[in-house]
Amino acid sequence: MASEVLLPTSPAEAASAFGDGSGVTVVAGGTIALPDITHGRMHPARVLMLARSGLDRIERSGGAVTIGAATPVAALVDGDEPLASAAAHVGDDEIRGQATVGGNLCASAGETPRGDLQAPLIALGARVRSAGAGGERVESLEDFLAADSSRLVLDVTYDDTPRSAGYAAAWRPHAHHYTILAVAAVREGGETRVAVTGGGPTGRRCPSVEAALAGGASTRDAAATVLDDVDPADDALASAWYRRRVLPGLVQKALDSLAG
Amino acid sequence: MKLNVNGVEHALESGALTPLLHVLREELGVTSPKAGCQSGGCGACTVLVDGEPRRSCLTPLGAVDGAEVTTIEGIGDAHDLHPVQEAFHTLHAAQCGFCTPGMIVATVALLKRLPQPGRREIERALSGHICRCTGYVKIVEAVEAAAGGSR
Amino acid sequence: MRAVGARVEKVDGIGHVTGQTTFVDDWRIPGMLWAKVLRSPHDHAAITKLDVAPALAVPGVRAVITHEDVPKNVLGHLEGLGVPADEPLLAESDVRWKGQPIAVVAADSEEAALAGVAAIGVSFEERPALLDVRLAFEADAPKAHHWGNWFPHFGGPDTPPDHRKIRKGDIDAAFEQADAIVQGVYRPNAIEQMPVEPQVCACVPESNGRLTIHSCTQGVYFTMGIVAGHLGVPLNRLKFIAGTVGGGFGGKVESWTEPVVALLALKTGKPVKLRFTREEEFLCTSTRAPWHIEIADAVTSDGWILGRKMLTLHDAGAYARFSPYGVTKHSFHIAGSYAIPNIHFDGYVVFTNRTPTSAMRGFGVTSVSWTIETQMSRIASVLGLDPYEVRLRNASRIGDTTPNWVTLHDPSSVPVIQAAAEAAGVELTADYRTMTRDPRSGDLLPEWLEGQLGDLDAKES
Which of A255, B3, C201, C456 could make an S-S bridge to C257, C-beta 3.0–4.6 Å? Predict the structure, then answer.
């Protein structure tokens, strides 16, 4: 019954220990995996722990910001927007200190969507570097999420460039509730990217909103098109009806907070 | 694996995936961190790991091998109460007492980081700690008093 | 009264703030086994197979108990209050709610106990489930309980066996005189007590034949009686160490872990502990009941409530537990803090295939208090009147009687509502600001009520 535990001490070791990922359960911060193991809902044969992998760094160089997969969410709270606001919206102090960026990107939708950092990173145009079958790979976060493959996230990168950012979230009844709805928007140069948490099982980009903005629509009219971009579900925190009802207003709020 | 718990070094037999909460309670007999939910949702198991508040139920031992762990036993005892403990006691911020060790440990970490927190900051720092008896009013008052006392 | 207004040191405070208070889970007991529970995955089903042999083959498993191991499996916890026994400690031929306990495994570790539970061979034949009290009275409703879909054992003078019934005054006259009828349907939902300490119990079999039971029960002597009853042993075989409770709020009168752990300790001859997970706390322990309450109030345009018709369906879940007692209490409080001279009330304890409901902080009363205050605001809103004034107009005064004919000698409704208005910064008009709780007279006594309040207190023959 006891699991084999691998504790790599470098990113390369982590990638090699992960191999093609078959039969490997990754534990980074442990906030999702540990309760499942404790309560007997999960019996992992091999566990790859990232605590000592050296993947917990944030580097700003060469015109890019790179965030290691094992970086705790707390390390983002004072960083770039809209990631900082989204990070502050995750759990509480202790959870943020422990939960990681990689865990957040790989968190499957449980009973409710729980990858709060996905939408702001999509809005930032982030790329994911991952290891697994076929070796290392770099792809956009949207492609990574869409592929739904079992890969080990090594880090995530976005351009270090001037931008205006907006973030709006629905009120959480309690610090331990997952986010019901959140909207992240980024304007870089002439381009605006918008993404949503709570519009589906993972963070989603909103091409209709972006196209409407590019076509000169008002933020109100552009925000209304978000319903074409999402497919929210009923869960214990909110109904799909509620999410569809509230989302356009949040999108508009995020867009209105962007500078000219 | 090893841990320094409240200043004492321990060599441990528990496996790398064992939650720190289990190591403290079952292997070392340190029972102040409570198994309130074992899912990270109640705050009653909170301890300091290298000075930072952590949910011990979510922390696998392998991730903190060699760390310094402080539980409320390492903060103060009946003969030498820490100002936070004193404030919780005199202002009746502990009713049944089950959430209290986690509350106090998190408060000590908060005051170290932010010696004069405002009400909003206190509420935010304790937002993951559930109390079902006192309703938080007295707890927040105790934290304010402890911060005032340490001025 | 030396303590009133004085700051008194809390007797167990130092232990709490230093983490040294010993809660049940904190007792270190050498050689202790851990227990885990096999529960029903279905709302309603027949148990077609139960084979514990595979569990006993799991390494570390020391014992498994089922209903066959319980000397008195079906024991009434509230028989003293006229609620006959209906609920098994461990399920026998059927399960009636998702989470109902079927078997309990004791093993050397929690992991081994969980593996033992998973190894038990159990099969079910699912039955239709009743999950909504509103459907309980339909002819083709699933049968949730062997007594039928509502509690049939009330009885007593002026009370039919199958519900609580109150007929006071002349309800038809009240509705004829009314300027308006204000109706409302209220459905206060279930609430989990959620003490931060989950239910936990440890039992140590002593060499003198006694059982030492570390329990977080809220009612030590109540729980002792339950354990003695299920085990069929005299009270002097049981030594309870209790009193330190990490929050209870009604949930810890449940007294289920204690007899189960005692039976496992007897069977294994070793100390055994059972600690609920948070998931079990939420899904498998009693909650405050959900209620379905329909009200029709006959009111005058100036805000007098002349009469109230009320139907209550109390969702007991799968077994009676404390629900009949809750509905009896509820029936006394259906007018809240107000004097309503004419009352027509029917209240049913309805069985469904939901988690049984039971005690929580003023159960039977709190839910109806919320309902009534919401209804009072609705009356004010419908009539276009001030909600404080509607409340004060109808507030109980000295000499008024409750729905169950208790005369009020010391009612505090008037000063409390006045204080609430003041705290909320609401200016009352002079009449209401100076109103007292003295018996009604003068302008605040409606003509139709004059001289009648006492006379209306006769029971319908």
Answer: C201
DSSP of A186-207, one letter per residue?
EEETTEEEEEEESSSSS-EE-H
pLDDT tens per residue, range B92-139: 999 999 999 999 999 999 999 999 999 999 999 999 999 999 889 999
Q: What mean pLDDT, rounded, does chain A reach?
A: 93
- What pLDDT band is residue C444 in, cutting at 50, 70 and 90? low
In this prediction, residue C447 has a pLDDT band, given cuts at 50, 70 and 90, of: low
**Domain A4-256, CATH class in plain words:** alpha beta
Structural domain for B121, as ranges: 83-149
For residue C433, give the 3-state DSSP assignment: helix
Domain C164-191+287-457 = CATH 3.30.365.10: yes
Predicted local distance difference test score (pLDDT) of residue C445: 57
CA C151 to centroid of chain Cα atoms: 15
Query: Which long-range CB contacts under 8 A does C410-417 form with residues at least 24 apart?
Result: C411/C337, C411/C437, C412/C437, C413/C337, C413/C338, C413/C437, C416/C337, C417/C337, C417/C388, C417/C391, C417/C392
Helix (H) or strand (E) holding A140: strand A137-140
The dihedrals phi and psi of C13, each to the nearest 5 degrees, come to -65, -45
Asked if pLDDT for residue C460 goes beyond 80, the answer is: no
Beta bridge partner(s), residue A137 = A130
Distance CA C135, CA A63 (A): 65
Residues of chain A contacting residue B125, judged by C-beta atoms under 8 Å apart: 93
Q: Are the beta carbons of B58 and A98 separated by less than 8 Å?
A: yes
Strands A64-68 and A58-61: antiparallel
Pinpoint the alpha helices (H) of C19-87.
53-56
> Which residues of C are less than 8 Å from A40 in CB distance?
111, 114-115, 118
Q: Is some CB atom of chain C closer than 8 A to the CB atom of B28?
A: no
Report d(CA C55, CA C284) in Å as an integer: 22
Query: In this structure, what DSSP letter does residue C459 have?
Result: B
The CA distance from B65 to the nearest CA of chain C, in Å, is 23
Report which of C288, C449, C429, C305 is spatially closest to residue C370, judged by C-alpha positions: C288
Chain C contact set for B132 (CB, 8 A):
193-196, 247, 249
Backbone angles phi, psi at C257, to 5 degrees: -65, -35
- Give the pairing of strands C272-275 and C200-205: antiparallel
For residue C223, how many other CB atoms are within 10 A of its CB?
27
Most distant CA pair in chain C: distance in Å? 82
Q: What are phi and psi of C305, to 5 degrees?
A: -95, 115
Pick the CATH number of C20-127+193-284 from 3.40.50.2300, 3.30.70.260, 3.90.1170.50, 3.40.50.150: 3.90.1170.50
Neighbours of C273 (CB within 10 A): 24
From the CB of residue A203, how many other CB atoms can be counted at a distance below 10 Å? 28
